[in-house]
Write a structure and sequence with these properties.
Layout lengths: L22 H10 L4 E5 L6 H11 L4 E5 L7 H15 L5 H8 L6 H13 L5 E6 L7 H12 L5 E7 L7 H6 L3 E4 L1 H4 L5
Parallel strand pairs: 1-4, 1-5, 2-3, 3-4
Helix pairs in contact: 1-2, 4-5, 5-6
């Protein structure tokens, strides 16, 4: 991986001590396992990250975490983070992609995506990858990579995207195929209970 990658971006944020548990949302997240995409989209302060970290704390489902920032609007840097996240769960996986990241020139995005997907498909165990702050991703190549990954969803991997607005991805087509779980402002608002 490139030397400029921050490993702290792979840490699942700690659960806050004053956490208000949200059992109805946690139950919906449990029900979403096996889907291909979970989108949690709402403005700042609605508890997106808190909800997911609470759910992960109560779940034994393997999950990798990647906190995104503006620097991830570069395909090579995004892939470095994504590969590092997957390797937190499966250290000997995605080695071809790791080597590809080191190449002087990356092939076209569809070729990169095929390599990544083929390697991820070899992972037999179900797992999820959380991409936090996905609204910061605007780069065409990164969006194309994620779109192609969602167009050809893997059997074992679920993507969980957290952001202040929907990412630039074909969510509607997955929704039409019944492959998404979506949490929006109306879902994240507190109930009286």
């Amino acid at each position: 991986l490139t030397g400029s990658f921050l490993t702290t971006k792979l840490y699942i944020p700690p659960t806050r001590p004053n956490l208000v548990s949200r059992p109805r949302l946690v139950a919906r997240l449990d029900a979403s396992l096996g889907g291909k995409l979970t989108v949690v989209s709402a403005p700042a302060g609605f508890g997106k990250t808190t909800l997911i970290t609470d759910w992960l704390g109560a779940s034994d489902h393997p999950c990798a975490w990647l906190s995104l920032d503006e620097n991830d609007n570069d395909l090579r840097l995004f892939l470095s983070g994504f590969v590092a996240a997957v390797k937190t769960l499966f250290p000997i996986a995605v080695n071809d992609t790791s080597e590809l990241i080191q190449a002087p020139n990356l092939p076209p995005t569809p070729v990169v995506t095929a390599i990544v997907l083929n390697e991820l498909e070899r992972i037999a165990q179900d797992f999820a990858v959380v991409l936090d702050d996905v609204h910061l991703i605007q780069d065409k190549a990164v969006c194309e990579l994620l779109s192609l990954m969602l167009r050809h969803p893997l059997r074992s991997m679920q993507l969980i995207l957290l952001g202040r607005r929907d990412p630039l991805l074909p969510i509607a087509s997955l929704r039409a195929r019944g492959l998404t779980a979506e949490f929006r402002i109306r879902d994240l608002r507190f109930t009286v209970d």
